[in-house]
Amino acid sequence: MLASFWKFTIIISFCLLPVKLEDDSDIPAIAKYFNTKGRYEEVNPYLIEDILAVNRSILQPPSAQCHEIHLTAIIRHGTRYPTTKNIKEIQQLYNIVLHNASGEQNWLRELQTQWTMWYTEDMDSRLVQKGVNDLKHLAVRLSKLFPSLISEEKLRGGLIKFITSSKHRCVNSTLSFKAGLTELWAIKDKEFDHAVNDALMRFFDKCTRFVQEVDKNPSALTEVDKFKEGPEMRRVQEKIADRLKVQYNTITDDMAEAAFYLCAYEFAIKTVNSPWCRLFDEVDAQVMEYANDLKQFWKRSYGHDINSKSSCILFHDVFSRLDKAADENKSGQQVTEAVTVQVGHAETLLPLLTLLGFFKDSEALTSTNYATQTERSFRTSHMLPYAANLVLVLYDCGGSDLRLQPLLNEKPVAFSGLTGQQASMPLYQDVKEHYRELLQGCDFETECELFKHPAQV
């Protein structure tokens, strides 16, 4: 383990030059539907032209007097290999294509004669080289967006703090983010620590009520199961079977998902428009996206109250850092923690985004309303690609005028319930008033204790 860790740290160096990644023919037509297996570049397509491009005009503080005093970034790890479970399903799908499929299509012949099963079970969710680059590039872009906060002086001065989940993909993403900065500023004489904190970054494992009522409770995902058995998913499975010329019962919903994710992994990891992607057209991809959004909705988001409440500990941590920065700034002291970088998982970000009220549609996602949800805001393809990030920036605009700007994936988002300019960069005091009930309550221990709450599933 230690040897592989050091091997990883040695091979992650690369040159941070603006470079066009690929032309359009390299991008699958269905790439924008890949949910949490999607690339960050599909959320911000301008990065395909220049991976280090930023647009500071998005910040738009209300006056020229405003300056940033603190930034908290909660970041999902970068691009990773499939899980062991995914890899086993990919192997099963490959066997079907190899031994049961027939047809003269070029893409099918390519799968049967040229594609080889290169995924191995020991890869199990490990960060890939593209994931290293995701975090290095993000570090450079954030330093360009917020040069007064993410600076060499503040890094060397110990004013930038790094916290990570214990999972190797998160630790290595944290190392990559730091490497992006140290390589940018050619820092070779000093190393910078990070803290492992699963209580904050993997709170979902520690929340007994969530684990028992949702994570380990099959009935919590009834809507997901119904959709998988419904007409939309059945049609996708039949179309895949028709393309492969295999019996309909060969392509289960698990095999359809394995094929969809295999197309996504081949693209995210290798930037390849794989022949596996030919198993889906855009209509199919939209159904697959909805199936996975439905799962995220019921397992990690608005489907059950405990999904968001499990993130209370991270919610309070974020606001305690903002309060500390506000208090130090008010008393004329230097803000002692100018930047906090916290690296976790999609399962870290989504409950917190839900608790904060982002991407809440007027109707819940269910197994029967796919047709009416085409314009939904709850789309994990947009919210949670690899290296997804929620950035909260605290501004001093003079006097007692402190403002807070939320950015998701380097784009402004509006706090739910606040309107006009108030939504994009509201007074910090207004934000605290808006979340007053959560700030006064939302106690992790109380919310996550199993027997004080009736089951809500």
UniProtKB/TrEMBL annotation:
CDD domains: HP_HAP_like
Location of the protein in the cell: Cell membrane
Alphabetic keyword roster: Cell membrane, Disulfide bond, Glycoprotein, Hydrolase, Membrane, Signal
Catalytic activity: 1D-myo-inositol hexakisphosphate + H2O = 1D-myo-inositol 1,2,4,5,6-pentakisphosphate + phosphate; 1D-myo-inositol 1,2,6-trisphosphate + H2O = 1D-myo-inositol 1,2-bisphosphate + phosphate; 1D-myo-inositol 2,3-bisphosphate + H2O = 1D-myo-inositol 2-phosphate + phosphate; 1D-myo-inositol 1,3,4,5,6-pentakisphosphate + H2O = 1D-myo-inositol 1,4,5,6-tetrakisphosphate + phosphate
First-listed, main subcellular location of the protein, grouped into a coarse class: membrane
An annotated GO cellular component: plasma membrane
Xref: InterPro entries: His_Pase_clade-2, His_PPase_superfam, Histidine_acid_Pase_euk
Leader sequence residues: 1-21
SS bond list: 66-397, 263-277
Enzyme Commission identifier(s): 3.1.3.62, 3.1.3.80
Enzyme type, top EC level: hydrolase
Gene Ontology MF terms: acid phosphatase activity; bisphosphoglycerate 3-phosphatase activity; inositol phosphate phosphatase activity
Family affiliation: Belongs to the histidine acid phosphatase family. MINPP1 subfamily.
Name of the protein: Multiple inositol polyphosphate phosphatase 1
